[in-house]
Specification:
This protein has a single domain, classed as OPCA outer membrane adhesin/invasin (Lipocalin, Beta Barrel), CATH 2.40.128.100. 10% of the residues lie in helices and 72% in strands. The chain has one helix and eleven strands; from the N terminus they run αβββββββββββ. The protein has a ten-stranded antiparallel barrel with strand order 1-2-3-4-5-6-7-9-10-11. A hairpin with a 4-residue loop joins strand 3 and strand 4. The two termini are 34 Å apart.
């Protein structure tokens, strides 16, 4: 699944960039890379599991006027004393800037857990969300918050419909006289089934980005 997801995201991302470039010269692209520390809480009935680990990831954002497209991808491993899982996650969103400080987002978000000897366990959500920004030191340091809700979701093992939601909060600083941005964020997301099964993911991430004009 991870290879197909990455390939699809790459193709769509490339087509989006090409379309933006051809449309007008007024566009911007930002690229970023970062690392995250994540905690995964899995629960089914009375059984609970807590795993921790690190992920590395990247991000690309294309903007023209009020339109925005964002691609994120991350991969790593979480483990406990008795178990371990590889994690692959990503999202591909299209957004619209309703205000200079407010954006509306639509698109898929996915997370896959891979356990040795078992088939992949994948959460996939089609989501809608909002993100807002506020200037702490205008032009230098901003705060931001992003909320999303899944309006359609699935878990592949066991095959079932799922619900999901998440929130991300953080600070972003722009370096003086350089198109470089540093972002510190905290995120919590949850996927849930009607039978009570759920995975909750918390993560702290540090990301560095470069803005191309």
């Amino acid at each position: 699944m991870s290879r197909r997801f990455v390939l699809a995201c790459s193709v769509i991302g490339a087509l989006t960039v090409t379309a933006q470039l051809r449309a007008q010269s007024h566009w911007s692209v930002s690229l970023a890379a970062g690392a995250a520390r994540e905690i995964v809480h899995s629960r089914f009935g009375a059984a609970q599991m807590r795993l921790t680990g690190s992920l590395l990831g990247g991000e690309a954002v294309v903007t023209r006027g009020r339109l925005v497209a964002r691609l994120r991808y991350g991969q790593g491993r979480v483990s406990s004393d008795t178990a371990g899982r590889d994690v692959v996650q990503g999202d591909l969103l299209v957004g619209y800037a309703a205000r200079s400080w407010l954006q509306v987002w639509l698109g898929p978000r996915a997370r896959t857990f891979v356990t040795a000897g078992l088939s992949d366990r994948r959460w996939l959500f089609w989501t809608g969300g909002l993100s807002a920004r506020g200037g702490i030191f205008p032009g230098r340091v901003d705060s931001f918050a992003e909320l999303w809700q899944g309006f359609s979701g699935t878990l592949n093992r066991p095959a079932a419909s799922a619900s999901g939601r998440g929130v991300e909060l953080g600070l972003e600083a722009t370096l003086p006289k350089r198109p470089v941005r540093l972002r510190l964020s905290y995120r919590v997301e949850q996927g849930r089934l009607d039978d009570g099964r759920r995975d909750t993911v918390e993560g702290f991430a540090l990301t560095a980005g470069y803005v191309l004009r």
